[in-house]
């Protein structure tokens, strides 16, 4: 009989497959616009740690740090044209994150909703799932490929298509509040909400289309702050941070 002490079992992650939604503004760091390499470096390091545990990871990134379609429309630009420019901005962010991930040895694929074969694969649902099953991080770029839809809606849609367990939305604040905590010191943080709570209270979490999609398919949303280093890893592997949005309160 062997006298060797069995190796301790690794704690199983609570999710098999997740979709992480990052705002383009998060890439700016302390800059007024553009991409801060140090910020992306930190995000890539956390994604690598999570992916190494066996969690299948997909990512959707906004483009607000480079171009925001709705602001372009308000300046007189055609809204559809402005939104297409915003989609191209998300591709730029996606390629930047891919570069940092692959420098860390993480196999990554960028899949775009708009055809641009020289820099990204076309989005094909079955191919995306196969990439995830092979342990690759998949970054979904160019939103839904249609104007008038936000990257929040794209994140909800892609999460359902790949059968993700949860949508994780990383923001500049540590959860959902009844009012902007950066402007109001008496803002109250919610630990848990239902989809209807978010819609009825008009909370600025995701747009109504994205919330409705998640509600129709019982896809939970975790909103958490990404300013503190390590929070992406905590949100996926240990929990206990942010605000959870789902069908029924526990």
Briefly, what is this?
Strand 1, helix 1 and strand 2 form a beta-alpha-beta unit.
Written account of the structure:
The chain has 250 residues and is α/β, with parallel strands linked by helices. The chain has a single domain (17-246), classed as Carbamate kinase (3-Layer(aba) Sandwich). Helices cover 36% and strands 18% of the residues. The chain has eight helices and eleven strands. Strands 4-3-5-2-1-6-10-11-9 form a nine-stranded mixed beta sheet, with helices on both faces. Strands 7-8 form a two-stranded antiparallel ribbon. Strand 1, helix 1 (37-51) and strand 2 (56-61) form a beta-alpha-beta unit. Helix 1 (37-51) crosses helix 3 (79-103), helix 1 (37-51) runs parallel beside helix 8 and helix 5 runs parallel beside helix 7. The chain is globular and about 50 Å long. The termini are far apart. The model has no long low-confidence stretch (mean pLDDT 90).
Annotation keywords:
alpha/beta, two-stranded antiparallel ribbon, 36% helix, nine-stranded mixed β-sheet, 250 residues, Carbamate kinase, 8 helices, globular
